[in-house]
Design goal:
The structure is a homodimer of 157-residue chains. Chain A is of the alpha+beta class. Chain A has helices at 5-10, 22-30, 32-38, 128-136, 139-154, and strands at 11-18, 45-51, 58-64, 70-81, 85-89, 92-94, 97-98, 104-113, 116-125. Chain A has one domain: 2-Layer Sandwich (Alpha-D-Glucose-1,6-Bisphosphate, Chain A, domain 4), CATH 3.30.530. The interface between A and B is medium-sized, with 22 and 22 residues. Chains A, B: Residues 20-153 form the Activator of Hsp90 ATPase homologue 1/2-like C-terminal domain.
Chain lengths: 157, 157
């Protein structure tokens, strides 16, 4: 994937070499039972996940805060290639219901590298301002901790 | 398709019974040579069309004004069912490059009705304000004239 200057302004990227197969990482991102185990840094929990893995299929992840408040995150899948790539966005809450605000598109890739997988999560925003806001909301720490949990789970599969 | 109150606020809809087959209307929307013949109310012309008909495939239509100025319209397809349905949006300029402003999602359906086809173009906006702006830009007249041209062409196929 070519990184243009324009994309650098709008993208937040996390990449890591993980000692697990692309298939194991893909499972962690697509099986609700696995997703609940790694997706949320404590003290938050992931209490529900739905994954209709096809272009236009719905994605719903419900996170729960320490006081029990639930935070549903709705989106749709745009592109799904098993064990290789998942693209999703919050621009729609279902096919084809526009969301209140198109904020981000997530592009996940799982590439074989050595004995493991080069895992890259690219979060692309519609505007540079949204990218900056997401970074200030704690993107790097939040996604970093979640990715530690993802890697720890994937190596056991 | 259920019309909710919320969608009524964000949708512009044109529907017409056309004496042509769903396949003929689908061809008019997907074959560049046909698209150039009906897509633009005069004095504008459609001088170029590209249609990569798959989820994430690019759509490019270049319109030309009477003084020769060209207006490229870039988008992507989200859902394509031959002879039945086409969904596209300008929220991306290609897969998966966010556009400057997500403005609309077009949902076209071609349903057999009697000897002809119930053609419905539903243009759904992210906000009620964008819907209103599109209406004031002349949606009904522009799409109405284009649909007259579409129907005239489709019955000859």
């Amino acid at each position: 994937m070519t990184e243009t200057a324009d994309n650098a302004e709008r993208d937040l990227v996390l990449t890591r070499l993980i000692a697990a197969s692309p298939a194991a990482l893909y499972r962690c991102w697509t099986e609700p039972e696995l997703m609940r185990q790694w997706f949320t840094p404590p003290p938050f929990k992931t209490v529900h996940a739905e994954n209709d893995l096809r272009p236009g299929g719905s994605s719903l992840v419900v996170m729960q805060g320490p006081d029990g408040t639930e935070f549903p995150n709705r989106g749709i899948y745009l592109d799904v290639v098993p064990n290789e790539r998942i693209v999703f966005t919050d621009a729609y809450t279902s096919a084809w219901e526009p969301s209140q605000k198109p904020f981000m598109t997530g592009i996940l890739t799982f590439e074989p590298e050595g004995e493991g997988t080069r895992y890259t999560a690219r979060v692309r925003h519609w505007t540079a301002a949204d990218r900056e806001a997401h970074e200030k909301m704690g993107f790097h720490q939040g996604w970093g901790t979640a990715t530690d949990q993802l890697a720890a789970l994937a190596v056991t599969l």
